[in-house]
TrEMBL record:
<protein>
    <recommendedName>
        <fullName>Ketopantoate reductase C-terminal domain-containing protein</fullName>
    </recommendedName>
</protein>
<feature type="domain" description="Ketopantoate reductase C-terminal">
    <location>
        <begin position="2"/>
        <end position="40"/>
    </location>
</feature>
<dbReference type="InterPro" id="IPR008927">
    <property type="entry name" value="6-PGluconate_DH-like_C_sf"/>
</dbReference>
<dbReference type="InterPro" id="IPR013328">
    <property type="entry name" value="6PGD_dom2"/>
</dbReference>
<dbReference type="InterPro" id="IPR013752">
    <property type="entry name" value="KPA_reductase"/>
</dbReference>
<dbReference type="Pfam" id="PF08546">
    <property type="entry name" value="ApbA_C"/>
</dbReference>
Length: 47
């Protein structure tokens, strides 16, 4: 891992946002976005 921030919020976050606006569940995108966000928030603790 190179500890760089990802575009997860722009990509998966947009899908989640639009899904909520349209009433379409996006559980996998929510999970992936949350998982990657947790990893990014703990980069300094990992290595």
């Amino acid at each position: 891992m190179n500890k760089k921030t990802t575009e997860i919020e722009i990509l998966n976050g947009a899908i989640v946002k639009y899904g909520k606006q349209l009433g379409i569940p996006t559980p996998y995108n929510e999970c992936v976005a949350a998982f990657i966000q947790v990893i990014q928030n703990h980069y300094s603790d990992m290595f």
